[in-house]
Design brief:
With 319 residues, the chain is of the alpha/beta class. 48% of the residues lie in helices and 11% in strands. The strands form 2 sheets. A 6-stranded parallel beta sheet has the order 4-5-6-7-8-9. It has a 3-stranded parallel beta sheet with strand order 1-2-3.
Amino acid sequence: MPDRPYVIALEEHFQDPELGALYGPLDANRAPHMLERLQSFSGPRLKEMDEAGIDFQVISHSAPSVQKLDAETAIRMARIVNDRLHAAIGEHPARFAGFATIPTPDPKAAADELERAVTKLGFKGAMIHGLTNGRFNDEPFFWPIYERAQELDVPIYFHPSAPSTAVIEAYYKEYLEKYPNILRAAWGFTVETATQGVRLVLSGVFDKYPKLKVIFGHLGEGLPFLQWRINMGFERDQKGSRGFKDVFSEHFYITTSGFWSDPALLLCVQEVGVDHILFSVDWPFAPNKPATDWLHRIPFSADDRVKIASGNARRLLKL
């Protein structure tokens, strides 16, 4: 397709072997063929990018990253992981950029590592995976991270991780053996991350830091589809303050990672506007080629297709 737009994908993962070894037993997503892709930069990663027509990846560590570690280990590993990713990006600077791994168990250290990664390593923001040792990341305890992100003018990407043990016990245990993905992409990831999104809005963090920008994958983890009802439901509680829809539409950007549906994308454009939607694949947990095939045939104007493919990412991440 000679006139295809430049394509940037920005929920594309790697796994550092040293950090990955701290996760415990490998699950199905860490099978040998998956690990090969997660740990590659010049091998399967570039080959599959080229085959699918992906020009550029913004790479981030896979879940659960450092969010489930003690503070000391998280601080140490975040620095190691970011330095190693920076070195890998340096081998292919025309093809890769990075989101930082930040040690949220110590928010001040996380803010400092974010600043180091952005100002010294050239990273484009940070990714947080799920809850931090059982705590939602909207608590004021974590706000030093968002203060620094606003100062640096970089977004924070909120990515799913497995639900907490208590939630698994209450909601999912009867179906785990037969349907293990109920904890992940099929349902659990969405519930946990959408809840984080609602809590962020209610917390007031966007009033405190009015230039803060966040990214949610998988077409916004269901929130655009529920935005009208959430907004209506909170109207009685939010007297005199901005409604959910106002905050979500201004501060949240959403990506297409692992979610290539024309009707769903159309709804997201109608709810949050095309300027807040960015292309992503969720590689290697989702394949590149079906994602780019879909991107090039979505029933939008050429200008809007360019915005989704790369224009919005260039603007948000200053690429």
